[in-house]
Amino acid sequence: MRLRRREAPQLGVLGAVALAATLLSVAAGAGGPRNNGLRVAASAWRGLVGTPREQVAVGQRVIVVLKSPSLADRVASAGGTATEAQERQWTAAALAADHQLIASLAQQGVKIRPEFQYARVLTGFSAPLDPRAVALLERLPEVAGVYPVRIAYPASLSSKMIQNGRLAPGAGVEANVDLPGFDGRGVTIALLDTGVEATHPYLLGRVSAGEDVIDSDDDPSASASPEDAARLERHGTQLAGLLAGSDGPGGLNGIARGATVLPIRVAGWQREASGRWAVYGRTDQLVAGLELAVDPNADGVALDAARVALVGLAEPFAAFADSPSSRAVAGALRLDTLVVAPAGNDGFAGPGYGSISGPGGSRAALTVGAADIRESSATVHVVLRSGLDVAFDRQVPLAGAVAPPGNMSLRLAAPRLAGRPSAGPPKLTEFFDDDGFSLVAGRAALVPAGSDPGYAAAQAVKAGAAAVILYGDMLPGGGIGLDDDVTVPVVSVPGWAGRAMVEAVLSGRRALASIERARAESRVEGRVAPFSSRGLAFDGFVKPDLVAPGVGLLTDAPGRAEDGSARYSSISGSSAAAAVVAGAAALLAQARPELDASALKGLLAGTAERLPRESVVAQGVGRLDLGSAYPGEVAALPTTLSFGRATGPHWHATRRIVVRNLSKRPLRIEVDGDERDRGGGRGLIFEFSKPRLVRVAPGDIASVYVTAAALSDGSSSIEGMLTVQPEGSTPVHVPWLVTFRPRRDDLLASVRLSTASFKPSDSAPAVLAFQAGRIAGGGQLEPVARLDLELHGPGGSRLGVLARLRDLLPGRYAFGLTGRDAKGERLERGRYRLRLTAYPTGHGPPSRAAVRFTIR
Q1: N- to C-terminal Cα separation, the chain
Q2: 10 Å Cβ neighbour count for 108?
Q3: For a Cys staple, 22 with which of 447, 666, 811, 845, CB 3.0–4.6 Å?
């Protein structure tokens, strides 16, 4: 799998920044005419889970986090309870800290126009800031840190098709998560996603008034693309249906059909880097959404906070524990709102830091990966030929929801411009000639899959295609799923086969496609989906916490079909799995109203059912098991453990587990390790504090300390589960993993200065370029928690920090040296040294590099 990462936006604060794209080769897999295997890998889901990831420029936007206590901090310090008057006072004080800092900077000539101000889940603001303002803020004692604004993307058939049973095997399934006697009534779930179509019949009476953070109004409806009115934001409506939909076709219902969904639009149609419109959100908008989730009427009091908040967005690969969005999740938990977040849709990674997305890297988040619970999927035999030449002859997965009615033999056709590179999916007009006649009517349309295969297929169907053959990356079975606009069979073929047939069509040769009747192939039920992101988070903790059904889930869709009926669809992705868990949390909150957010998190994660043949970094504890969570009497915190990296045979680390009695009776609770680690059979041994058997009064807590010690110098990771067993009750489990320190921890490389001698200039600075972070073997990311650029003058005197950058993903960075010092004053002539210090996200020494230059 090849993932293209561009880190330029987050360095916009540095002024003259030029950045090259970095390729992360996470899981190699290439195919061509001579490759006999058509393995569908994790990358096959690209464009099918969530929305296409367009390149987005965030300008010079940053989030400034202040040290002043937020409302969440104050409430936690007060023991978790406060009056309305106290909460209003504390929120006002946090906002006053924002205003005071902004006013103070204005007196120094630094004008800040904040786009968002935060006071509830954290204290701070977001704003576009120039390089000098950022450097000044980082030096102020009131500032905890200045962080880059990142981009977050949504992580993810008509009713008649569902009712009439026209679905191909595996095209659409129900999550089948329930708690008999409970439907979530009285529980509010805040949905932070794209807009929601509250008037959809599946959602009538289930969606309350909400807020639109994107357009700064109170209408969080699903918006249409300014470039194409037929393209509505889908993701929020689909997740709302998974949460609380009811009375759908074929008896379809959401998980908590009695719950109330509070829609908060934090993602939607916005301009991307090229000026086109794309669906995405920003982390400053996400934090603003969490502020509304804990204080829906924005009166400064969080007593009306949503019980559960579902974040439908994912910041790719950004599993930083200290990021603003992670801090905001922790603040929401302190205000008794459980935040459920997707693990991400970036698939496999290395044994160390994995591919977890933000804010799922926050310890406070209940982070959910996607499991595939389909029992079968459909495949079809496809033959592509031109005359007597057979270009392709294979059994392939059926990508869409509609199976061929029988054996099909069709002429191949292609849209106009098919042989040319395109900046986006084909437009409907490209399927018609200059006289308005369809080029693909009644034929099999050859269409490039591109970044949005579902949309590409829908355009071909609208033009009258009898079947659609997408070419590019091979798509997984049922990947496109249910879509009211895709009512014909859809298959995919490798790019080389598709391009060969397009060439035949464009040259006027007779090209044919044969698609045989679909056949069902059984699957191993209950595996983690290939696209689901794996841990660890960047603080070393195991993520995700658990997995839930997240492939081909039936739900609603915005808009109306041609006959005026409501649209329904299927959705895949870790955000869909997170919606299932959020709905389960609502059921559990109704069934056991005395549980706070932390207890809900501990029960849902700790009682999950372990999946065989899956690593803890893929599944966390295991698959959601609401039936076991409901009677649970114990929660363990944290829900997953980090022992850090083992450095050799003498390494050891001690961690604390807090055991909490959630019952109304005293409990005897024992904490034990994995049987495989007794006696050090795997090169690791566990020791527990005495006593490991604790007695805990109702509602009370106890602490158990666990020490892991390495007996040998390992070269790979070791994982397992700790079991917290209350006497006569349901056990909970805590997954852990120990990685061994890589041989090289160099986080700085290729440090170069464009010129070693220059005159001070704001318009033509010297350019310092460097590689920050690295990608180790197997796709293991080594990010940078903090990077300092410190200036030293003639004689070695320290002149201050020119720039401080936080939470850097591996990439190529550049910084403009204007010949000014940390205070903005022009440097005198002489020799200078710029020292770069990169601090790792986990424990370990920093990496250092230096360059020398002369000011003329």
Answers
A1: 48
A2: 9
A3: 811
Residue type, 140: L
Q: What is the Cα–Cα distance from 656 to 25, expressed in whole angstroms?
A: 36
pLDDT score, position 15: 34
CB 243 within 8 A of CB 259: yes
Contact predicate 757/662, CB 8 Å: no
Half-sphere exposure at residue 640, Cβ-oriented, CA atoms within 13 angstroms: 38
DSSP 580-643: HHHHHHHHHHHH-TT--HHHHHHHHHHTPBPPTT--HHHHTT-B--HHHHTT--EEEESSS---
pLDDT at 351 over 80: no
* Dist. CA 331–CA 350, nearest whole Å: 30
Residue 298, pLDDT above cutoff 80: yes
Residue 132 sits at the vertex; the CA angle it makes with 92 and 848, to the nearest 5 degrees, is: 110
Task: Please state, in angstroms and as integers, the Cα–Cα distance from residue 584 to each residue in 310, 423, 626, following that order.
Answer: 12, 41, 7
pLDDT (tens digit, 9 = 90+) per residue, 582-627?
999 999 999 999 999 999 999 999 999 999 889 999 999 999 999 9
Confidence of residue 423 (pLDDT cuts 50, 70, 90): low
pLDDT in tens, 740-749: 765 456 899 9
- For β-strands 527-528 and 467-472, DSSP reports them as unpaired
The two beta strands, 774-776 and 780-782, are antiparallel
Q: For the segment 652-697, what is each residue's pLDDT rounded down to a tens digit?
A: 889 999 999 999 999 999 998 876 655 455 666 777 776 678 999 9
**CB-based burial label for 593 (10 Å; 0-12, 13-18, 19+):** exposed
Per-residue pLDDT for 159 more than 50?
A: no
Q: What's the rounded Cα separation, in Å, for the pair 766 and 717?
A: 43
The dihedral of CA 176, 177, 183, 189: what is its sign?
negative
pTM: 0.85
pLDDT band at 778 (very low <50, low <70, confident <90, very high): low
Token digits of residue 436: 């308005």
Length of the chain: 856
| Cα–Cα distance for residue pair 718/250, rounded to 1 Å | 46
| 408-413 vs 2-5, strand pairing mode | unpaired
Q: What is the pLDDT of residues 408-419, one digit of tens each?
A: 999 999 998 765
CA–CA dist 92, 156 (Å, integer): 38
Q: Which amino acid, one-letter code, is at 829?
A: R
**Strands, E assignment, 246-303:** 260-265, 268-271, 277-282
Q: Which of 809, 785, 814 is nearest to 316 (CA)?
A: 809
Alpha-carbon distance 88 to 287, whole Å? Answer: 19
> What percent helix, strand, coil does the chain show, rounded to 5?
20, 35, 45
**pLDDT value of position 180:** 95
Ramachandran category for residue 401: left, alpha or beta (phi over 0 → left; psi -120 to 50 → alpha):
alpha
Between helix 131-139 and helix 84-107 the angle, nearest 10°, is 120
pLDDT at res. 213: 97
The vertex-740 CA angle with 345 and 645, nearest 5°, equals 80
Read off the tokens for 433.
Answer: 């000639």
Residue 97 dihedral angles phi and psi, to the nearest 5°:
-65, -40
Convert 410-426 to b/e letters by CB count within 10 Å (16 or more is b).
bebbbbbebeeeeebbb
